[in-house]
Write a structure and sequence with these properties.
Elements (H helix, E strand, L loop, with lengths): L1 H6 L7 H21 E3 L2 E4 L5 E3 L1 E3 L7 E11 L5 E7 L3 E3 L9 E3 L9 E3 L8 E10 L2 E11 L4 E6 L2 E2 L5 E11 L4 E6 L4 E8 L5 E9 L9 E7 L7 E6 L2 E10 L5 E2 L5 E10 L4 E6 L8 E4 L2 E4 L9 E8 L2 E8 L2 E2 L20
Length: 355
């Protein structure tokens, strides 16, 4: 401020005096700051240890060091002594939360560096190395310790039922991290997502995200990817999820080739069903209800041991799962030797041509 004020008054006789005074003040501040050398910022992880270095480097012949204290100021809380070193009375650790975790690395007043073992998230804050000196009074330097935590990442697909409203089909979580993680979704499904953040009592952050869409049968088995980025991770964490959408069956009958002639022994029909979960029952019937004696059913397959007039009928396949039932019908025609369909007669009892 003093320099800026003088600059507006180029003819002021006090300009040089202001500049000299500013230089003296800045120089004095630099000297004070250099007396206690510490690291300005450190980062650490829970359960690990950290060394807080401190050194008195500008004592001079007239400065006498009498005692040094480490003072902790938590992010939310009041300052408190955690370690004291006196050349005659030795070491003291007045804060019970640190007592068994703090040690002095050197038994020397000029280098009172400490180590904190078994770190906790709550240890984050400002650590001041403060000297009691004579005759200049207290001198100090402060290190800010930032506690980091790798998030515990997880993701899962949510089983849902096909419907007409938007629901959560996948969830992703980055729990107990610091700083907060970022969650992204990669997908061609066309949904959207919502994210919530909650703060833990120890300073960690849990981020949760849901991927939502209006699910259809076509979405079952499609992929979405959860991607978590966070400062402590070497690379983004990703998890590929397959959507699980449940829906009632859809049924088709396959295998009929329009060539069921009398005496044929390899005629087969297949009841194909798409469903989630898998069908619980598959039932074959005919227009009359019961199946002909020449028909054998095995799971979804209907086999005709020998084609005759009895299979000149309409077959129905019904498939069920817990979400409902669906059926499909197919009418088969048996061809006799002259190329006509069995049972195809006119009012006078003569066989009608198929062509």
């Amino acid at each position: 401020m003093a320099i800026g004020y003088a600059a507006r008054w180029p003819g002021s006789p006090g300009k040089n005096a202001w500049m000299v005074a500013a230089v003296i003040i800045l120089t004095a501040q630099g000297v004070v700051a250099q007396k206690v050398r510490v690291e300005e910022e450190l980062e650490a992880y829970p359960t690990e240890s950290v060394d807080l270095r401190c050194e008195f480097v500008d004592g001079g012949s007239l400065t006498k060091l009498t005692q040094v204290s480490w003072i902790w100021e938590p992010v939310d809380g009041q300052r408190d002594n955690i370690a004291v070193f006196h050349p005659l009375y030795g070491q003291s650790f007045p804060n019970m939360a640190f007592k068994d975790r703090v040690i002095f690395l050197h038994k020397e007043l000029k280098i009172p560096s400490i180590r904190i073992n078994n770190l906790r998230m709550s240890d984050a804050g400002r650590y001041t190395c403060e000297y009691a000196t004579y005759p200049s009074g207290n001198e100090q330097g402060t290190t800010t310790l930032t506690m980091l935590a790798k998030p515990k990442n997880s993701a899962r697909a949510v089983t849902v039922q096909a419907g007409s409203r938007s629901v959560a089909v996948a969830r992703c979580e980055a729990a107990d991290g610091k700083p907060a993680a970022t969650i992204q979704w990669l997908s061609s499904v066309g949904g959207n997502h919502s994210t919530t953040v909650s703060n833990g009592s120890d300073g960690t952050v849990t981020v949760r995200s849901e991927y939502r869409l209006v699910p259809t049968a076509a979405d079952n088995g499609r992929e979405v990817i959860c991607r978590v980025e966070q400062r402590t991770q070497d690379r983004p964490w990703t998890e590929v999820l397959r959507l699980s959408v449940e829906y009632p069956p859809t049924v088709t009958i396959e295998g009929y080739d329009n060539n069921w002639y009398v005496g044929r022994s390899d005629a087969v029909l297949f009841c194909q069903a798409k469903a989630n979960p898998e069908p619980t029952t598959i039932t074959w019937t005919t227009a009359s209800g019961s199946l002909p004696d020449t028909v054998v059913v095995e799971d979804n397959k209907l086999m005709v041991r020998k084609v005759d007039d009895a299979v000149n009928t309409t077959f129905t396949c019904e498939v069920k799962n817990k979400h409902g039932a669906s059926r499909q019908t197919l009418t088969t025609f048996v061809i006799v030797e002259d190329g006509t369909a069995a049972g195809d007669e006119d009012d006078n009892g003569r066989t009608k041509s198929c062509f």
